[in-house]
Amino acid sequence: MAGSKKNKAKKVSPRQTTHPLIMSQDTDELMNDLLAQLDSREEAVQAESAQVLNEMNLNEQANAIEKGKKQDAKSRFQARQVARKAAILAQSFSPDDPAHQARLENEAKDEDDAINNVCRNLNLEVFEINPDGHCLYSAIADQLVLLGQVSPEQANYAAIRSVAANYIHSHPDDFLPFLPSTGGEDSEGALDAGLMDPFQFDSYCKTVRDTATWGGEPEIVALSRAFNTPIHVVQGGNPSIVRHYPREGDAGDPNGPAVWISYHRKLYGLGEHYNSLRPGPRRIPVT
């Protein structure tokens, strides 16, 4: 079960927090540790992490980042988004509200049941991937080894991130319309859709390649095309399976070789997470 993973993040004490308005590298590392701890199944660890995140005045830091002059627009946008997301996560975690916690647990169970039902029908089993920001790439790496497309030595998130970043960078016309812009509708106070300029696009690809930023739909599409392999995502919502094929409009063989991963929104403290779906035990027909 995906929920059995033990959190390996180092424990952080509230005494370690600082309150600079502009997030330093040390603050970034601290936030990463605290966000990772929100994935813990131990309520005491979750509560402590949420408390420290709240004490960091992240919304104030996000506002300061937006006004900062030392970073380029793309870096400010990304840092602001991380700070705001951390603030929302910390504020939404309410260990003293039993009704809130019960609702979250029920939602997580319903999602888990839905994913496991699909997996049973497909004879697949969840193989847990570490929820560290690289989970999409690690899950796809695990699958590509099973398909014989990469060697175990190449099966790491860094290598798969590079493939995704390089493919997106070399096919800008395919991806620019679907990427968040810093000067258009995705920026604060924007009035038009806008598109990334070449510098912002280069920065986006560098972020995909070199950071722990979560991957999503653009990166899945890029990896499906780069490896010429379908990538199917099992989820708790509707549809239960989102299928990606290397060529747009080509449904391919639904029973052919493919990467199978699961997408979890509720099960982990940080929300979005991907696991690898490995083949289950062979079933002996009843005669």
TrEMBL record:
Reading the lineage from the top rank, the first entry is Eukaryota
Pfam families for the chain: OTU (PF02338)
- Read off the InterPro entries from this record: OTU_dom, Papain-like_cys_pep_sf, Peptidase_C85-like
* Annotated region described as Disordered, given as residue ranges: 1-24
What's an example of a GO molecular-function annotation for this chain? cysteine-type deubiquitinase activity
Q: Which PROSITE patterns match?
A: OTU (PS50802)
Q: Which CDD domains match?
A: OTU_OTUD6-like (cd22748)
Q: Which SUPFAM superfamilies does the entry mention?
A: Cysteine proteinases
Q: Give one GO biological process term.
A: protein deubiquitination
UniProt feature, compositional bias: Basic residues: 1-13
Protein name (record)? OTU domain-containing protein
OTU domain residues are 124-280
